[in-house]
Amino acid sequence: MSTDSIAAPRSNSAQSPKYKRNKGSNSSFEMVAWLFMRLSGVILIVLIFGHLFVNLMVGDGIHAIDFGFVAGKWADPFWQIWDLAMLWLALLHGTNGVRTIINDYAERDGTRMALKTILYIATTVIIVLGTLVIFTFDPCPPGAVIDLPSFCPVP
Amino acid sequence: MWSWVGHRITGVVIFIFLLVHVLDTSLVRVSPEAYTAVIGAYKNPIMGLGEAGLVAAIVFHAFNGLRIIAIDFWKKGPKYQRQLLWGVLALWAVTMIPFLIRHLTIVFSNFFGGH
Ligand code: HEM
Which residues lie in coiled coils (chain B) (predicted)? Predict the structure, then answer.
């Protein structure tokens, strides 16, 4: 019986320098994604903590939230930009995080593709919807009577 | 290890809530009545407890996220990762206690006190 020893991992000197975990591409996408998770995370702390503080802690807290409350905030470009940045960063951060989790647990190629397709469709729909709502919002819709902000003309 | 499990679970839970939260906020584009009716559901005590849980999840994820960043970028981060976790839990408690007092007071007093 020959004593064929098993080569140590990656000891094949002809190939070892070329060893790559990801044979598919040389793109830096995963590195950019990794950096984005950290950068967006830091910015999201400010955006989300500010959002929660203003909406839940100040004044009458959650009890004060109605149509007029939202209309009052979005009458100010400051809160429009704030909410827009929060929407985009949180959704992209969350989507990239869930993408990682799908890659970790869904082992079959088909399952992984299907889950990621659903994820990307959901993200796109929600980002587009949220952005449209922030920018096409009418604080004094014609015909509405309840909960209007105080600056609307009295009908 | 457990902080990683916690970070994952809170991340997914927040993400799912975020999808729903954009949908409910979009009702402002339908009509004031539709928005105010649905947001009213967020104001009962059961939902108030749910919101408290959600904020607890976000605050943990946020502070533990800073810990991950410190471990990745700070030279001594990996060495002190365990102490950093205690820091995360301490900051979490320091943030959550005033939040819970304020939020639950608002939720319960407005519900039982009537309006
Ligand atoms: C509040 C500020 C936040 C900070 C500081 C933060 C920080 C982080 C960091 C550092 C990671 C690790 C990324 C990696 O390992 O490459 C992460 C992962 C993740 N985050 Fe956040 N995040 C925040 C908010 C959010 C929000 C709002 C969501 C949901 C929409 C979210 C969902 C996720 C998910 C799903 C993961 C993946 C977890 C995993 O792979 O185990 N995060 N976050």
Answer: none
Flag whether pLDDT at A106 surpasses 80: yes
pLDDT in tens, B85-97: 999 999 999 999 9
Residue-level pLDDT at A123: 97
Residue B38 domain boundaries = 2-113
Separation of alpha carbons B78 and A128, rounded Å? 39
- Helix orientation angle between B2-26 and A109-136, rounded to the nearest 10 degrees: 40
Residue B80 and residue B76: Cα distance in Å, rounded?
6
Q: Determine the length of chain B.
A: 115
Please answer yes or no on whether A98 and B58 come within 8 Å at the CB atom.
Answer: no
The verdict on B14 touching A (C-beta cutoff 8 Å) is yes
Our count of domains for chain B comes to 1
Residue B8 in contact with ligand 1 by CB distance below 6 A: yes
The class of domain A26-136 in CATH terms is mainly alpha
List the single residue in B with minimal CA-CA distance to A87.
Answer: B22
Q: Model ipTM?
A: 0.91
Which chain B residue has its CA at the smallest distance from A41's CA? B65
| A44 closest CA partner among A98, A101, A15, A83 | A83
Question: How is residue B43 written in tokens?
Answer: 């104001």
